[in-house]
């Protein structure tokens, strides 16, 4: 029994703290550009805290709060997976300072890495909705002209028109050309009637 209590005390001595945030349900008016913005469904929102070889997954409480307990000292990335919206990610630093665990949060994006420091617990808000349907382009006559089959038809039609505009050969010219070629006989479909 004493060994179990000693093991619990040793594991509780590891520096760990709580990391959390809150989801704000409003979107800014300039972000509402698409006509069919889906409703925010908290049951489909997953919050992920990754780093130091560990991955913590949590869901939101009904008031939009998320809390990861006993997070050990280290660097983490907190992000939200949602079916309907994109969210900003945050870099989280948990470290020990004077026998106390301190949590610092920073803006984070994949391209630039860690940004400016922000308050902890972090506040998540949807940035833009995920749009799964493809917006259909309106009909345009110019789009028909970009089609390769239509281009081939137009070139063929142009050749037919130009061939009809060519001058017809004379019988005299044909006979003279025939003599110059040494008695070569032209096929009947090439000679004029």
TrEMBL record:
One of its GO terms (cellular component) is EMC complex. The chain crosses the membrane at residues 148-164. Keywords: Membrane, Signal, Transmembrane, Transmembrane helix. It is found in: Membrane. Residues 1-16 form the signal peptide. It is a single-pass membrane protein. InterPro entries: Beta_sandwich_EMC7, EMC7. It comes from the Eukaryota. Residues 41-152 form the ER membrane protein complex subunit 7 beta-sandwich domain. This is ER membrane protein complex subunit 7 beta-sandwich domain-containing protein. It comes from Euplotes harpa.
């Amino acid at each position: 029994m004493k060994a179990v209590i000693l093991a619990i005390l040793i594991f509780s001595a590891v520096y760990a703290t709580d990391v959390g945030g809150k989801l704000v349900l409003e979107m800014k008016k300039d972000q509402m550009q698409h006509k069919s913005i889906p409703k925010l469904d908290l049951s489909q929102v997953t919050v992920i805290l990754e780093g130091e070889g560990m991955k913590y997954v949590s869901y939101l409480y009904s008031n939009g709060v998320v809390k990861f307990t006993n997070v050990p000292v280290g660097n983490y990335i907190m992000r939200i997976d949602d079916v309907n919206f994109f969210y900003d990610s945050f870099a989280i630093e948990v470290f020990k300072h004077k026998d106390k665990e301190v949590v610092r949060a920073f803006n984070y994006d994949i391209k630039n890495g860690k940004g400016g420091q922000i308050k902890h617990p972090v506040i998540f808000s949807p940035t833009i909705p995920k749009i799964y349907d493809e917006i259909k382009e309106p009909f345009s006559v110019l789009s028909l002209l970009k089609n390769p089959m239509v281009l081939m038809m137009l070139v063929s039609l142009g050749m037919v028109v130009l061939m009809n505009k060519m001058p017809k050969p004379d019988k005299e010219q044909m006979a003279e050309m025939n003599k110059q070629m040494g008695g070569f006989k032209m096929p009947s479909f090439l000679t004029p009637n």
